[in-house]
Amino acid sequence: MHGHFEKLYEDQATWVPCYFKFRFFPFLQSMQRSEGFNAVLKRYVNPHKSILNFVKEYEKIQVHILVREGGND
User: Fold this and answer.
1) Per-residue pLDDT reduced to its tens digit, 14-57
2) Counting Cβ atoms within 10 Å, is residue 26 exposed (0-12), middle (13-18) or buried (19+)?
3) Domain segments of the chain: what residues?
4) What is the rounded CA–CA span in Å between residue 41 and residue 52?
5) Confidence (pLDDT) at 1
6) Whose CA is closest to 57, among 36, 66, 49?
7) Of 41, 69, 66, which is closest to residue 55 (Cα–Cα)?
8) DSSP letters along the chain, please?
9) What count of other Cβ atoms lies within 10 Å of the Cβ of residue 37?
10) How far is CA 1 from CA 5, 6, 14, 16, 17, in A?
């Protein structure tokens, strides 16, 4: 029985996405991607500015990422 679960774990990339296809989890991401995005935020967002400025800068970053990745959203 234990071997069965090990095999499921090894193959999770092939079966897990089907259970989450219609679910949106914006805060789940790899550590590497998280650290990379934190670096982007630090480059473009000043902690001494207002929350309104933060939102505007964040939106610019999102647009930049979408354009770079070829998205149309």
Assistant:
1) 777 767 767 666 656 566 667 777 787 777 777 788 888 888 88
2) exposed
3) 2-69
4) 15
5) 66
6) 49
7) 41
8) -HHHHHHHHHTHHHHHHHHSTT---TT---HHHHHHHHHHHHHH--TTS-HHHHHHHHHHHHHHHHHHHT---
9) 13
10) 7, 9, 20, 20, 23
Structure tokens at 33: 């991607």
User: Token pair for residue 70?
Assistant: 């070829």
Amino acid at 62: Q
The residue type at 41 = L
The number of residues making up the chain comes to: 73
Amino acid occupying residue 17 = P
Distance CA 50, CA 52 (A): 5
